[in-house]
């Protein structure tokens, strides 16, 4: 079995999250306006947003942290293609308790769990305190964090992910309050729209669905089909219930 025979992974995605080209461009413009010299991307994946920030801020350097070697390799290849290899480092390591701060700008999109104790329930407040520790005065943090658009019903929770409860996320006002309590001012608050979610969720599975349609008897087809069906079913239950907020945060003091 060669690599070409295996189910594809995330090839249709530009960003590993519900983020459009238009929204990312506005985020980058605001970040670049602060002229960060150092950028840390926590749970960077292949670091698409990190690379775009570095491209927009001449001379800035960046570090992307993740524990997925395949994504990191993709990031290094993208950096090489864009002439950014000398200004970015992709590191396979945990962000928990990281000493890679303080820095001028932090990206943490859909990855705040990387800053929390994995033996405990996910704690956005703890993640925000860590982000405050890691950013320099006058710096910027862009946090992408899940929130409930409304309190989910028991039936919706049952179809989302194993063990899903209403306590897994906050409502948006509560999430913003946590950021303020952690020592930030919310300079910009925005949320992913339905089109961004649909582009992400369908793009997440697109290549794999095409592969399954043409490899129905492949040795990996059954487990791949089951995994994709679970992912799709989860999304259809949290669609229009789970949102993601993009908060641009400025540390106080």
Summarize the structure in words.
With 253 residues, the chain is α/β, with parallel strands linked by helices. The protein has eight helices and seven strands. It has a seven-stranded mixed beta sheet with strand order 3-2-1-4-5-7-6, with helices on both faces. α4 runs parallel beside α6 (172-181). The longest helix is centred in the last third of the chain and has 21 residues, at 194-214. The relative contact order is 0.17. The mean pLDDT is 96.
Features:
253 residues, alpha/beta, 8 helices, globular
Give a brief outline of the structure.
This protein is of the alpha/beta class. It has eight helices and seven strands. The longest helix has 21 residues, at 194-214.
In this structure, how is the largest beta sheet organized? 7 strands, mixed
CA-CA gap between termini: 57 Å
* Secondary structure category: alpha/beta
Indicate the mean pLDDT. Answer: 96
Report the strand count: 7
H/E order of the elements? Answer: HEHEHEEHEHHEHHE
Helicity range of the residues? 25-40%
Topology readout:
Layout: H1 21-33, E1 38-42, H2 48-56, E2 61-66, H3 69-81, E3 88-92, E4 103-109, H4 124-134, E5 135-148, H5 154-158, H6 172-181, E6 184-191, H7 194-214, H8 221-238, E7 242-251
Parallel strand pairs: 1-2, 1-4, 2-3, 4-5
Antiparallel strand pairs: 5-7, 6-7
């Amino acid at each position: 079995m060669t690599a070409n025979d295996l189910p594809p992974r995330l090839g249709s995605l530009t960003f590993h999250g519900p983020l459009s080209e238009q929204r990312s461009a506005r985020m980058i413009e605001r970040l670049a306006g602060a002229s960060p010299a150092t950028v840390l991307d926590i749970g960077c994946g292949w670091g698409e947003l990190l690379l775009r920030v570095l491209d927009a801020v001449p001379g800035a350097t960046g570090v992307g942290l993740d524990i997925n070697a395949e994504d990191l390799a993709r990031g290094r290849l993208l950096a090489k293609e864009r002439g950014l290899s000398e200004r970015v480092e992709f590191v396979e390591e945990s962000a928990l308790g990281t000493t890679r701060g303080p820095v001028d700008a932090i990206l943490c999109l859909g990855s705040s769990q990387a800053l929390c104790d994995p033996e405990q329930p996910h704690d956005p407040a703890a993640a925000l305190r860590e982000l405050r520790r890691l950013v320099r005065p006058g710096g910027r943090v862009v946090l992408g964090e899940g929130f409930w658009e409304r309190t989910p019903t028991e039936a919706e929770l049952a179809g989302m992910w194993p063990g899903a409860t209403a306590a897994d996320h906050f409502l948006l006002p509560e999430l913003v309050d946590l950021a303020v309590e952690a020592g930030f001012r919310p300079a910009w608050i925005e949320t992913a729209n339905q089109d961004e979610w649909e582009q992400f969720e369908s793009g997440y599975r697109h290549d794999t669905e095409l592969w399954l349609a043409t490899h129905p008897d492949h040795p990996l087809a059954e487990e791949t089909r089951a995994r994709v069906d679970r992912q799709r079913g989860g999304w259809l239950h949290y669609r229009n219930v789970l949102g993601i907020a993009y908060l641009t945060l400025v540390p106080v003091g």
